[in-house]
């Protein structure tokens, strides 16, 4: 049809290039796949129209760019008579910049200038966009800024907006603000550029203050501004403002724009308003991959990993194809659940669909396997990457993996190996290695690593001090831990004081615990866990008056202890157990198994640890409370249903109590089972009556 139409124009005396351009414009607008585009390109090349028509050449370049086929776009550019056409040069430059080929864009710009073509107000925005993509191009961006001024484009509104973006992308927010403040005329594009700069620098309050100033100037927000504002509100976690943004989008009919829908879902996710995010997602039937990814991220950010996996299954049967970002979110969800079967499933999906596994995704998969108690596969994947391609983040991931499993010596060995490979550790490395030393009780090695931070010019942050306090506290060196806190140059945060409070619980130091608790109640007045922990410390010391005060304080503040949940995987399904589950047809058999299990354990020497339950209840009730802890119910379910040759894998959302820990050790010996329990802090591998943590958790 295309060739027949072209022949019609050839035989028509009134034929003009203009008519041919109009004819092919129609086909290019409706072109939905790369195969048809290549056919059009072939016809235009065969008939010499690519060289004759600058317009068609540019259109083909743009279309290839839309499909992210940059090599083909450059081939078209090379076929055209582009020597004197700044339009074609700008089109190709735009293709490079919009597809993230920033280095190529800047090299292309140099070639353009070398060929004697002058840059204009259409050229500079794409050059500056490329300069702002990476800090290494910052100096070149400054040179382009000088060129902009010399060539008289310093007051062009689009060039000025691009300058703001460029400086912000380079981390030079103040320089971007100087450009913004000197603008004689600021339209919505300029204001949005500056607001976006503050939002991307995670300065949400300043971004929203600028928004207020923009509105004071009488300018109306467009949908691009709404996208930025929604992101800024999400950073602040401000539910009231989030609903205001949502309402504005509805009233001004911009919620029909897919990017606005995506940003509003993301905003509600960061504010913890999952139901509102779901409402927006369900409302918008026209969804792109980012829409699905936004909702998946919302679920994972709010601890709803199972819901994320269910939504992913729906996405797979929709008309939207999952991309690398999608699987990165799902890998994170699998890591959160600790589900080895789901981990294998998503990894197979990535391989079968020939997805590009970049370093970020590769590290995430290693982390996933480590958190799914499959450290062997995590190590195998780490070793598959050649040493010269390994990034510090890859080393950090495996060191952290060893740490959460209690393999501190292996973590220290890997840390030394990393340094021998001339990989400089960063702040994340030190957090991972210090945490690993803490979990394994390697106090001397931990102190040595902490001292090395100065050598590698890494400034200790509160998270590093928290690891050190945890390590010293677990080892019983509470006074040294407290002195370390007092020596901190920055103000201790809740992580630091929380580590000290937990150590005080282990060793019954009530006086030091009160100091830690007072600081925690001031820093995190709504964190119920700290009140519960301090209440237990008072209960251990028989100080019932203080226990009563703390419980009343919690009641007055509307605080409740987080509900414990234990998960176990069986037949590709996750089964959840809460402490003291209501009896039904499903749990009745599990309760019977628990009762049978406890009898057998008592015959093997099990003595219930009543310190794990409230002290002011009857002994008979204490037995019931201990027996029906969620992790014991999950364990009974596993003993009843999982083949004896397989490990029983359980995940708990809180720290495992000492009574359940003792029971699990005995079960592993009495029943001859291997049990892997992942609690909020670490993994416990139970086998032959022993635990990998050596009772040090």
Number of strands: 6
Shape: elongated
Q: Strand order within the widest sheet?
A: 2-1-3-4-5-6
Helix content: 55-70%
State Rg. Answer: 31 Å
Q: Whole-number average pLDDT?
A: 89
Report the oligomer: single chain
Distance between the termini: 74 Å
The poorly predicted ranges are 8-14
Main β sheet profile: 6 strands, mixed
Q: Assess the beta-strand content as a share of residues.
A: under 5%
What structural class should be given to the helix and strand makeup?
mainly alpha
Number of helices: 38
Q: Could you name the key traits of this structure?
A:
697 residues, mainly alpha, Serine Threonine Protein Phosphatase 5, Tetratricopeptide repeat, six-stranded mixed beta sheet, 38 helices, elongated
Structure description:
- With 697 residues, the chain is mainly α.
- Among the domains are: 101 residues; 86 residues, Serine Threonine Protein Phosphatase 5, Tetratricopeptide repeat, CATH 1.25.40; 127 residues, no CATH class.
- It contains 38 helices and 6 strands.
- α1 runs antiparallel to α2 and α17 packs parallel to α19.
- The longest helix is centred in the last third of the chain and has 17 residues.
- The N and C termini lie far apart (74 Å).
């Amino acid at each position: 049809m295309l060739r027949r139409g072209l022949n019609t124009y050839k035989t028509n005396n009134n034929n003009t290039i203009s008519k041919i351009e109009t004819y092919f414009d129609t086909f290019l607008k409706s072109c939905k796949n790369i195969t048809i585009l290549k056919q059009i390109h072939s016809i235009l090349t065969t008939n010499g129209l690519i060289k004759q028509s600058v317009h068609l050449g540019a259109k083909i370049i743009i279309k290839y760019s839309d499909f992210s086929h940059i090599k083909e776009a450059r081939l078209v550019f090379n076929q055209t008579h582009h020597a004197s056409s700044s339009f074609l040069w700008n089109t190709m430059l735009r293709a490079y910049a919009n597809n993230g080929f920033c280095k190529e864009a800047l090299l292309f710009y140099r070639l353009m200038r070398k060929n004697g073509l002058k840059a204009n107000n259409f050229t500079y925005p794409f050059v500056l966009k490329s300069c702002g993509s990476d800090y290494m191009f910052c100096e070149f961006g400054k040179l382009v800024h000088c060129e902009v001024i010399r060539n008289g484009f310093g007051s062009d509104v689009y060039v000025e907006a691009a300058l703001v973006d460029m400086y912000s992308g380079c981390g030079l927010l103040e320089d971007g603000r100087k450009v913004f403040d000197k603008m004689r005329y600021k339209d919505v594009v300029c204001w949005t550029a500056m607001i976006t700069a503050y939002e991307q620098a995670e300065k949400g309050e300043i971004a929203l203050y600028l928004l207020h100033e923009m509105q004071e100037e009488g300018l109306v927000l467009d949908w691009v501004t709404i996208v930025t504002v929604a992101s800024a509100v999400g950073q602040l976690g401000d539910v009231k403002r989030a609903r205001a943004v949502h309402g504005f989008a509805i009233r001004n009919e911009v919620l029909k724009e897919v990017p606005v829908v995506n940003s509003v879902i993301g905003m509600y996710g960061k504010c913890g308003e999952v139901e509102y995010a779901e409402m927006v997602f369900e409302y918008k039937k026209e969804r792109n991959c980012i829409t699905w990814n936004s909702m998946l991220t919302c679920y994972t950010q709010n601890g709803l990993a199972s819901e994320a996996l269910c939504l992913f299954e729906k996405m797979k049967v929709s008309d939207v194809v999952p991309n690398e970002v999608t699987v990165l979110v799902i890998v994170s969800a699998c890591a959160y659940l600790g589900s080895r079967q789901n981990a294998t499933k998503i990894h197979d999906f990535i391989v079968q669909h020939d997805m590009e596994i970049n370093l970020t995704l590769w590290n995430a998969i290693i982390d996933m396997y480590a958190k799914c108690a499959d450290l062997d596969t995590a190590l195998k994947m780490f070793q598959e990457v050649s040493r010269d391609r390994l990034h510090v983040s890859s080393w950090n991931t495996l060191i952290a993996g060893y740490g959460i499993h209690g393999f501190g010596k292996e973590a220290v060995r890997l840390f030394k190996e990393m340094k021998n490979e001339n990989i400089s550790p960063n702040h994340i490395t030190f957090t991972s290695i210090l945490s690993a030393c803490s979990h394994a009780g390697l106090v001397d090695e931990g102190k040595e690593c902490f001292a090395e931070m100065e050598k590698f010019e890494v400034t200790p942050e509160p998270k590093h001090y928290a690891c050190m306090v945890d390590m010293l506290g677990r080892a019983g060196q509470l006074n040294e831990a407290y002195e370390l806190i007092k020596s901190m140059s920055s103000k201790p945060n809740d992580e630091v004081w929380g580590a000290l409070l937990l150590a005080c619980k282990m060793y019954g130091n009530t006086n030091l615990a009160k100091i830690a608790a007072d600081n925690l109640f001031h820093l995190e007045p709504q964190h119920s866990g700290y009140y519960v922990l301090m209440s237990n410390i008072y209960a251990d010391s028989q100080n019932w008056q203080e226990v009563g005060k703390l419980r009343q304080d919690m009641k007055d503040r509307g605080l409740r202890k987080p509900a414990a949940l234990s998960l176990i995987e069986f037949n590709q399904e996750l089964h959840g157990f809460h402490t003291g589950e209501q009896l039904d047809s499903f749990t009745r058999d599990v309760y019977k198994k628990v009762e049978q299990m406890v009898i057998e354990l008592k015959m093997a020497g099990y003595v219930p640890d009543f310190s794990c339950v409230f002290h002011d209840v009857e002994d008979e009730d204490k037995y019931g409370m201990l027996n029906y802890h969620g992790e014991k119910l999950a364990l009974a379910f596993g003993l009843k249903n999982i083949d004896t040759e397989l490990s029983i894998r359980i995940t708990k959302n809180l720290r495992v109590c000492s009574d359940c820990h003792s029971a699990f050790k005995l079960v592993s010996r009495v029943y001859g089972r291997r049990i892997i329990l992942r609690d909020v802090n670490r993994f416990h591998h139970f086998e032959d009556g022993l635990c990998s943590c050596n009772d040090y958790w």
